[in-house]
Amino acid sequence: MCARSMNRPLRAVGVVLGLLVALLISGPTGGVAHAAVAAPAGDVLSIGDPDALGQIDLYVDPLCPFSGKFVRAHGDEIGKRIEAGKLQVNVKFVAFLDKYSASGTYDIRAIYAAYVVADQSRSSDVTWRLIEAIYAKGTQPKEGGSTDLSNDQLADLANQVGAPQLAQDLIRIGLPIGFDPHPIAANNLVVLHQFPEPGVPLVVINDQPVDEDSDWLAKLPG
């Protein structure tokens, strides 16, 4: 084995160690991610003011074309309400379409990217904009398509929405440091299947699913 190839794993180890040190300095992470003043628990990525009058649970899959259509249709208005302190969105990612992505791991990697950006930015605005970017037309991979987004491309999206450099580095390295998206997605899928029609996207208000094609957003308080 040549010296050049021997140095590659050493460099990789050095990058991982550097990221771990940076995480320890910046603060602990766990099984939840925080955006702005939200205080999420369990497998929820909470975005927005927890005291907002409007509260929804949103089940989505990063690869799902209907989830993408939903975010593209309502994302701008949701973002405005989040920024105005009128809405908290509890995003509950699932990953049952992962096997239909080109890499076989896209859902899991996209979920991890969202959690890391929320945790490192502590910004609801940045986190929601990343979710919008993941589902943007021309960016969201196709179910059963021949390509999806690499870790570098996901990190580039994080950079475009203003995520901290550490978040970008964690996404690029591709290891579940701080968060493991596998149990997060699996646990959310179990909860999703408790509803009569367990498909995504699914909007839940006061523990009741609503028709996402209705005017549910206009009826929210605030």
Keyword list:
globular; about 220 residues; five-stranded mixed sheet; Glutaredoxin; 5 strands; 8 helices; alpha+beta; disordered N terminus
What report would you give on this structure?
The chain has a 5-stranded mixed sheet with strand order 1-3-2-4-5, sandwiched between helices. The longest helix has 24 residues, at about 5-25. It is of the alpha+beta class. Helix 3 runs antiparallel to helix 4 (about 125-135), helix 3 (about 105-120) runs parallel beside helix 5 (about 150-160) and helix 5 (about 150-160) runs antiparallel to helix 6. The relative contact order is 0.18. Residues about 1-20, about 20-30 and about 35-40 have low confidence and may be disordered. Strand 4 (about 200-205) and strand 5 form a beta hairpin. It has helices spanning about 5-25, 65-85, 105-120, 125-135, 150-160, 165-175, 180-190, 215-220, and strands at about 45, 55-60, 85-95, 200-205, 210.
Derived from helix and strand composition plus strand pairing, the structural class reads: alpha+beta
CATH superfamily: Glutaredoxin
Main beta sheet:
5 strands, mixed
Placed side by side, the strands forming the largest sheet appear as 1-3-2-4-5
**Number of distinct helices:** 8
Summarize the entry for a quick read.
The chain contains eight helices and five strands; from the N terminus they run H-E-E-H-E-H-H-H-H-H-E-E-H.
